[in-house]
Amino acid sequence: MKVFTPVLVIFASKLFSIISAIDDRLNAVLESLLKSDEAFGLRFRFSDDDSRERHRFAVEVDATDWLTVQRIARSSGFVIEDRIRWAEYLKPLHREKRITFIDPLYASQLQSWSTFPKMSIAETWAQGLSGKGVTIAVLDDGIESTHDDLRGTFDPTVSYDFISRRADVTPNMIETHGTRCAGIISMTANNSRCGVGIAYNSRMGGLVVLKKDQYLNDAIEGDALAYKINDIDIYSVSWGPADDGRTAELPGPLAQKALENGVMHIVIGVATSSGLSPWYAEECSAIIASISESSSGMVTTDVDNKCASISGSSAAASFAAAILALALEANPSLTQRDVQHLIVHTSDSSQLMAVSPEHWIINGAGRSFSRRFGFGVLNPLRLTTSATQWKSVPVLTRCSRKLHIVNGTFTASAPLLVDLPFNGCSGTSGEVNWIERLQLDVSLAHPRRGLISLLLSSPFDFFDQLGTYQVTLKKYVVLTNYLDI
């Protein structure tokens, strides 16, 4: 907060205003003068004039006692511009910046952010944050870089088409997904087009990994996740394996290598305006937080220079990426692990817990957690405020252990209990004293995968369900997957 020197300003009416927005000593000085007017040879009175607010002091000073006036003014920190006839104490007033934009769909955005659970986007912007200095890459089917609402933030230096092997990432008219995801993040503000991106001053790149009738492979996925890793701060990924309830795939070796080299994932869920999980959402132990989404979807851009709305987990991932861009602007030194801690500490679970308490548990650290919503709805204002004061977490250490079980048997009434002794690699360079993230690599074979459910229990008797029943899955399967919590 800035400190201003109080100044006595002369007006034609001989009324002087004491400009002091924050110096609390001023009030005490005037109170003191009121009690000791005879000692200073000054006359003071409280203003009852209806044209002035009653909380102000009106002070009348004898023109013949100018030296006393000078001494009082200087000892109180005032700058004297002329002989004082009247001095008035101005009460500090609370004023807020009004952030408003002329984009036609901005009002609709404000309304959607104000629905339950509330997203404090405008309040975060009021702190001076807009994603400036942060670069985000959208891994998808391309971005219409010539769109009126995207060309100002699009950055060709961090864009590439990994399918066609070219720099141009322009999609065709049926490939709309990437352009819609990009708009949520970085639509230009105040240009009378569509809406306003959450991180409207960020730089946006497009990495094409999806195209109609073209299949993504491990090499493409790995290349994209490692592309210009020193220039790109956030990779936004709004897609995955087939959502058919049967497919369960882990990243290939090249994609895993790219992740190990610096890109760590943050998984985002969705909460409806009713505080419930939407029909398309999947429960997952890796979800760390959620985005609140109104029934009308999110305002965004579309191909052919149009505006649109988008909903679902694709919109949630883009929305979260933009919020994290605001946090990175607030504190550019944040690492992925720092961001993960900040999300856990600042997300709001209270509103969602009140609606569906049955979906929440208390973990070993005493924090509320849900496999549907993670640690709660992202709170942009709380997240960015905490980011400015955050001290980076210590260096990461890793510890792993292998366990093989041959022909383990279990039934619905007699589950297979597997004890995983773990000392945290005590006494080694990889010693782990507390757990940030746990990854289980699981390979199993069973004649009916849909009957299998995996649960993990901690020493604090905290249970987390890693895999759920899917009774429609009847085929024999050899499942190789990883479960991240």
From TrEMBL:
Organism: Angiostrongylus costaricensis (Nematode worm)
Gene3D superfamilies: Peptidase S8/S53 domain
Cellular component aspect of the GO annotation: Golgi membrane; trans-Golgi network
Record bears the keyword Protease: yes
SUPFAM superfamilies the record matches: Galactose-binding domain-like (SSF49785), Subtilisin-like (SSF52743)
Protein name: P/Homo B domain-containing protein
Annotated catalytic residues: 140, 177, 314
Gene Ontology BP, a term: protein processing
